[in-house]
Design brief:
Length: 87
C-alpha cells in the first residue's frame, strides 16, 4: 500500500479514533459537565462513523471504540475507588 493511501485509510482514522477515546478521560462520575462530555463523545463518534462509512478498517475501529467506552469509564471508577480506599 502506498504511503499516502496508508495514511488516508489507516493512520488517519486511527488517530481520529484515538482522539475520540481520549474524550472519555473527562467522563468521570464527579465531573459536573459529564453530560456534555458524553454528548461530545457521541457527536464525535457519529461524525467519524459518517466520515469513514466506506472504510472497513475505520468501521472496525469504531466497533472497538463503542465496545470499550463503558470499560474505560468503569476502569476509571475502579481507579477512583482504589485511590479512596488507600486514604
Amino acid at each position: 500500500m502506498e504511503a499516502q493511501i496508508f495514511k488516508e485509510k489507516i493512520y488517519g482514522p486511527y488517530g481520529e479514533a484515538w482522539k475520540i477515546i481520549k474524550i472519555l478521560q473527562e467522563a468521570e462520575d464527579d465531573n459536573p459537565n459529564l453530560r456534555e462530555v458524553l454528548l461530545h463523545y457521541c457527536a464525535e463518534a457519529f461524525k467519524f462513523k459518517e466520515k469513514y462509512k466506506d472504510n472497513e478498517f475505520a468501521s472496525l475501529l469504531m466497533d472497538v471504540v463503542f465496545g470499550s467506552d463503558t470499560v474505560i469509564m468503569r476502569m476509571d471508577r475502579n481507579e477512583v475507588q482504589k485511590t479512596e480506599a488507600d486514604k
